[in-house]
Amino acid sequence: MKKFEIEFKWALYFTAFNMLWLSLEKFLGWHDELIQMHIMYSLLIIFPQALFYYLALREKKFKYYKGKINWQQAFLSGGILSVIIAGLSPATIYYMNTFLSPEFIDLAIERYVISGGKEASAKNFHSLEAYIKNAILFNVSIGIVISGIVALLIKTKETEK
């Protein structure tokens, strides 16, 4: 476990940030009166998420690998970070739908039906289980992409060796 201590720490930081982000979404009305904007605006979290990955991999480079890291090491570390974040994401979704915005799913279904969708498909797409699955898949997939890009930025250059 010591080997992945940095990834666990940054996954916890990101999860805490994600809960704050959801609170900001609620404050801005994206969970109720502006719910139709939620999907588009909630994707903005990718930018701070990339910053968290950068900071985590930078710390891994200097504290664990003593300043020298190759792309594969950085990518693996980012992949592990992605999996841990994805594993913690059900707690974030549960927090949002149980404590922060318990009416969110019902409002999302209502908005979907008003816009012409069928109620049955709305209930399949807008459910706690669906949001948890989507959060896990999103965090793994976007995390892998971000990890690959950040690994390119963070790897030790030939001139640094």
From TrEMBL:
| The organism's place on the tree of life at top rank | Bacteria
Give me the segments passing through the membrane.
Answer: 12-29, 35-55, 75-96, 135-154
- InterPro entries registered for this protein in UniProt: DUF4199
Q: Which UniProt keywords apply?
A: Membrane, Transmembrane, Transmembrane helix
Return the protein name: DUF4199 domain-containing protein
Organism equals: Psychroflexus planctonicus
